[in-house]
């Protein structure tokens, strides 16, 4: 039987404070095939750092939609030990947490605009380790210091289609 190519698209909207704009799209040409991650971010203003898929979806109506209390840590279903990860952008995709996009493909540090297309065989859109429905955060740093800026976190909701996503 010939298997039809299936395209899985995720629609992403920004939540939380800050001026970062743009989107991250995930698609798969075939089920179980590698995921293509299309990143198009702007207004990063040199304060962004890493970006990650987190464990939980957005909590509707939350006063702190960007907090780790709401969305928990990086999505890491294979319990990868991050102290064994190489520097960002250096290793192979299996050497980082599944949700560690900037580890796999490089940080946003000192960028205002970032456009990139990445192939990731370890970012499933189906099955038990699927990232669909979770959130993405872009971490930012306070200017002139290296304090992680929770208020600057921006969140994206990952959905299998664009309906049913509400800005709040
Ligand atoms: C993670 O790896 C480090 C360095 O190899 C090790 O010291 C630590 O015990 C590991 N942590 C877990 C939870 O396995
Ligand atoms: C879009 O997603 C929502 C929620 O997951 C689902 O209820 C709805 O049926 C989907 N619509 C289409 C056209 O796939």
Automatic annotation (TrEMBL):
Positions of transmembrane segments? none
Q: Which residues form the signal peptide?
A: 1-22
- UniProt keyword Methyltransferase present: no
Q: Which Gene3D superfamilies match?
A: Superoxide dismutase, copper/zinc binding domain
**Which residues belong to any copy of the Superoxide dismutase copper/zinc binding domain?**
21-138
Keyword Transmembrane helix on entry: no
Going by the UniProt record, its keywords in alphabetical order are: Signal
GO MF term (any one): metal ion binding
Any coiled-coil ranges, and where? none
Instruction: Please list the GO biological process terms of this entry.
Output: superoxide metabolic process
Q: What is this protein called?
A: Superoxide dismutase copper/zinc binding domain-containing protein
